[in-house]
């Protein structure tokens, strides 16, 4: 039986300088690295940005822990064909199909005793991506399906921060800096290097993961929207310190530490739980956000704005306004624009889109796009509403508002082409006839 780390609650705010201690009097006062830390702990700094990054961009935290992170055995390669093999050579060098691509939900592992147990790491299945950890640019996009807790296993990602979007089943993320619980329609972000373990309170879980190799995710500027709207900083929650002092031998387990480093997975023996941080302060920390708190903006006259108004978080690039990764959601909302085609219009973008559905139905697709499913529409590939949606919206009464309820779709949008993995292209759950959803579009031209 794996030890259980209990939550101590959350602290509110995005990118704040937090301070938290599970045992009062642990944090040193007026300094970071005293000669002797209280309670016989070790002081350790983790830096998520360069030391000399501008103050408003600098990310680092000081941890006060039972053992330093350097204490583990030597790493050896860890095989996981579904996850790490796709990152080699910058996601491959061959041709990328311009076809529209769509998949059914990833099949969930069985819940009966005879089924092979699959934890969060084993359950990752890479769909595609671009760039590379080496260039510190690009993304890796995955889905996951799991049916057991990570037992005696701990993970950290040196390549990327991880954006986790559950679709079915809750996740309990035990991290070095505290405990995060998320459910469908919530998200969590785990920064580079933070060690964590995933438990499944509901026994089964499925969802999406995006690895961001570029600059860390941040809230977008609001521009003419003004000072309020979209995702509000106070709705982001960072865990308070919580720790466990557990040795593998004491619970009859051989613990292992799994690392993702330069596109490969590695594993090392570790004789203790690395979730042993008693206190910490800083801003390089995991956080969660409830997508249902998003304040949606829209048109109240005619037409409707670009999907930029649905932007939750963005990883910027050196080109102003161009994202390495934009995380966009399509939540419940009211469509009121008159004499306007209200669903998303037909379009071709310079950016490339990976889309997923967490809950309900997506208003641009009448059929075939199920919760847990996903699609890829790459640079300049035409896409938009299917034939049934087009006909319905073209003849709708726009003098009355449409109330879109019980829905939550999202996009991982990126400036570079998303290279689908071969395993994704060959997958049994790929919809090979996806293009047929537009086949019923009729010619209405009357000169």
How would you describe what is shown here?
With 447 residues, this protein is mainly beta. The protein has 2 domains: 75-276 and 285-290, Sandwich (Jelly Rolls), CATH 2.60.120.10; 293-430, Jelly Rolls (Sandwich). Helix content is 3%, strand content 34%. A 7-stranded antiparallel beta sheet has the order 20-13-10-15-8-7-28. It is globular and about 85 Å long.
The total of helices stands at: 2
CATH topology of the largest domain: Jelly Rolls
* Number of β-strand runs: 28
Structural class: mainly beta
How are strands sequenced across the largest beta sheet?
Answer: 20-13-10-15-8-7-28
Strand content: 25-35%
Largest sheet properties: 7 strands, antiparallel
End-to-end CA span? 73 Å
Name of the CATH class of the largest domain? Mainly Beta
CATH architectural name of the largest domain: Sandwich
Unreliable runs, pLDDT <50, ≥5 residues? none
Supply database-style keywords.
447 residues; mainly beta; Jelly Rolls; 2 domains; 7-stranded antiparallel sheet; 6-stranded antiparallel sheet; 2 helices; 28 strands; globular
SSE order and pairing:
Elements: E1 10-12, E2 18-21, E3 42-47, E4 60-65, E5 76-77, E6 101-103, E7 124-132, E8 137-146, E9 153-157, E10 161-168, E11 171-175, E12 178-182, E13 186-190, E14 196-199, E15 205-212, E16 237-239, E17 256-261, E18 264-269, E19 277-282, E20 287-290, E21 311-316, E22 323-330, E23 333-335, E24 352-360, E25 374-377, H1 387-394, E26 402-404, E27 407-414, E28 419-420, H2 422-426
Parallel strand pairs: 9-17
Antiparallel strand pairs: 1-16, 2-19, 3-4, 4-19, 5-18, 6-25, 7-8, 7-28, 8-15, 10-13, 10-15, 11-12, 11-14, 13-20, 17-18, 21-22, 22-27, 23-26, 24-25, 24-27
């Amino acid at each position: 039986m794996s030890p259980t780390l209990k939550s101590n609650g959350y602290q509110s705010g995005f990118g704040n300088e937090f301070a938290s201690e599970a045992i009062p009097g642990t944090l040193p006062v007026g300094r970071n690295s005293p000669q002797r830390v209280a309670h016989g702990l070790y002081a350790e700094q983790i830096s998520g940005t360069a030391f000399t990054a501008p103050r408003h961009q600098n990310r680092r935290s000081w941890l006060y822990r039972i053992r330093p992170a350097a204490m583990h055995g030597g790493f050896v390669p860890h095989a996981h064909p579904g996850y790490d093999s796709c990152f080699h050579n910058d996601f491959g060098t061959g041709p990328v199909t311009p076809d529209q691509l769509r998949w059914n939900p990833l099949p969930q592992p069985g819940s009966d005793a005879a089924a092979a147990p699959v934890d969060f790491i084993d359950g990752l299945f890479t769909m595609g991506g671009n760039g590379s950890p080496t260039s510190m640019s690009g993304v890796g996009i995955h889905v996951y399906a799991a049916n057991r807790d990570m037992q005696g296993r701990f993970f950290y990602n040196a390549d990327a921060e991880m954006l986790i979007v559950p679709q079915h089943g809750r996740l309990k993320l035990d991290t070095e800096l505290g405990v995060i619980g998320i459910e469908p329609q919530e998200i969590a972000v785990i920064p580079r290097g933070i060690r964590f373990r995933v438990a499944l309170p509901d026994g089964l879980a499925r969802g999406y993961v995006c690895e961001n190799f570029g600059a860390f995710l941040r809230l977008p500027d609001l521009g003419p929207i003004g000072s309020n709207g979209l995702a509000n900083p106070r709705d982001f929650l960072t865990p308070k310190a919580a720790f466990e002092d557990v040795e593998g031998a004491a619970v009859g387990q051989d613990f292992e530490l799994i690392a993702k480093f330069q596109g490969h997975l590695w594993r090392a023996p570790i004789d203790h739980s690395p979730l042993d941080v008693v206190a910490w302060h800083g801003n390089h920390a995991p956080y969660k956000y409830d997508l249902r708190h998003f304040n949606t903006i829209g048109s109240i006259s005619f037409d409707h704005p670009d999907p930029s108004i649905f932007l939750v978080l963005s990883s910027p690039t050196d080109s102003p306004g161009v994202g390495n990764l934009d995380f966009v959601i399509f939540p419940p909302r009211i469509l009121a624009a008159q004499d306007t085609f209200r669903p998303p219009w037909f379009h071709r973008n310079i950016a490339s889109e990976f889309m997923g559905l967490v809950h309900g139905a997506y208003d641009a697709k009448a059929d075939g796009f199920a919760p847990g499913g996903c699609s890829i529409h790459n640079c300049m590939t035409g896409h938009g509403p299917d034939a049934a949606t087009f006909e319905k919206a073209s003849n709708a009464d726009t003098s009355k508002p449409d109330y879109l309820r019980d829905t939550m779709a999202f996009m991982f949008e990126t400036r570079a082409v998303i290279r689908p993995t071969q395993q994704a292209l060959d997958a049994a759950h790929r919809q090979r006839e996806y293009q047929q959803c537009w086949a019923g579009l009729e010619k209405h031209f009357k000169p």
